[in-house]
# Entry
Amino acid sequence: MKKILSLAAVIAAILVLTGFSDKGKSSWGDYVVACGDKDLYIIDTQSSTQDSLAVVWHWNVDEAKGQIPDEDVHRARVLDDCKPVDGGKRLLLTSSGGETLLLDIASRKILFYAHTPMSHSADMLPGDRIAVANSTNPAGNSLEIYDVSKPGVVVWKDSLYSGHGVYWSEKHNSLYALGHKELRKYALKGWNTRRPSLRRQKTYALPGAGGHDLTPLGEDALLITNSDGVYLFDINSGTFSPFSPLEGRKHVKSVNHDPVSGRTVFTIAETSWWTNHLYLLNPDKTLTFDPSYRLYKVRVLPDWDAVKAEMTPPPFPGFDVNPSLRAPGTNLRIFDDNIWQNDSDKNLKAWEPLKINCTDSARSLGFAKMIADHKPDIVTLQEYSSHMDGHLAPKLRDLGFTNACEQDGTWNFTPVFYDSTAVELVKVKYNLYTPKTYSNANTKSFTSAVFRHKATGRVFAVLNTHLWWRPEEAQPGSQMARASQIRLMMAEADAIKAEYNCVIFLMGDMNCEEDTVPIRQLLDDGYIPCYKAATIFGDNNNGHHRCDAGGFSAESARKGPDRATGALDHFFIHNAPKDVEVLVYYCIMDAYTLPLTDHYPNFADIKL
# Structure
């Protein structure tokens, strides 16, 4: 297939099961942690290019829901530091919204949380304690100590105006704290008692104001940034000197340097306080994030291989991200998405302040990019209007896809596209739901398509649907209307089984949850949700959020936290022989999908 490059800046941070591939031992700077807003990325800098980020692990603050109180999740949504600790196996996260988190990378679990006003930096101290530097906030301007075993409880506190950095030096048995105009050195006091504290030993005036970042440079030096530049602080002599690789560079938000290799990784504020670029020196390289992502700081991950080794079972999703790669054994990938019928040639008024174009012309680029990256064999879409078709169909044809549905004067809002190099179309049928009371503007329908898989010769069927949308309380009879629509699909599937005795894949936007009458009909008849059938990874996430004429939001509109209680989009397998297997089911919840549609795309990797 051809690959569209027009949205190269879009982050291709989805997934692939190649976590234990033999890439050789990594060097300092080969893997970095980047943070900003709600998203956290681990990036393979060696595999990344200017136009493509090799994201090997991604975490969003909303994943903390259910682990910590909702108010703490909300405060954590402005990530401003992401420091690897414990050999790089965990991350200390601070948020300007007023939160500090200790996140275990392998398990994705929150090990500690605390409300820390305007926190900008944290570090681990002996005895499983945490030091936090808080910036300008009525309750902040402080250096605080916490105990990991007591979330949210301040053990000790000192005033520190515009606290921006903390670093524990094991060699010098000292904590260094960075403020607006000063660097402080603290010693532990009464550390093994019930009232541990710190004793300030020295205060060093900075060469300028606006202290911002504090990182180690070997064991006997620190790197410090402020509004005017980047400086090296010699711990033994207590003196500052310009840091030559970045001398004269102002507004450096984060900097990391390895004195052995001479490599440097840093970020600079380029739009207000953030950027969408990550810079590397020796060798020089610039990595570009999506313009909508407000990157703040970057940190070097010490040993990604050691982190991966702790992930059992082998993590999926999680690393060496390349969405075009499939789980081992996959010979069929089916991609599904409701793409939001907007039918607009002019950007909507509410979207203009967001500086995002929601027209079909613009969004079609995003959908084509996503399909090009994931390289499915089958694409099923809902709310696919003739207006969107004018923009998206040419791009899908360029990618090698054919629309299985021949139009006969009635537009098919639930088409099935296929790659003719992978599968052969045997039979297709379009079914419009009636009456119109439960099919607004003839948009509710299902399409059934029977294919022959070219590599294996195996026949399989795909049924793609969009069910009636109104809730029962808004329009009585709606739930039974959806149940009737599903029964029509089941009848069609039974006819296909009688003729071909093949495996059935049934998916789409069904506008009801798994525990409702319509879906229970499928479950009772032996249809298995693919997230449950998956043998390698079954994603329990579910996605539905605002994306309409009034704008878009990452806030979930789902009723429950998992697929069984919250998902409106469903993907089933039915009548599968013993050797047919769903390997992976995945719900793509990356931030760049938010302005494309109110549904998160999903796909299944299958072994026929």
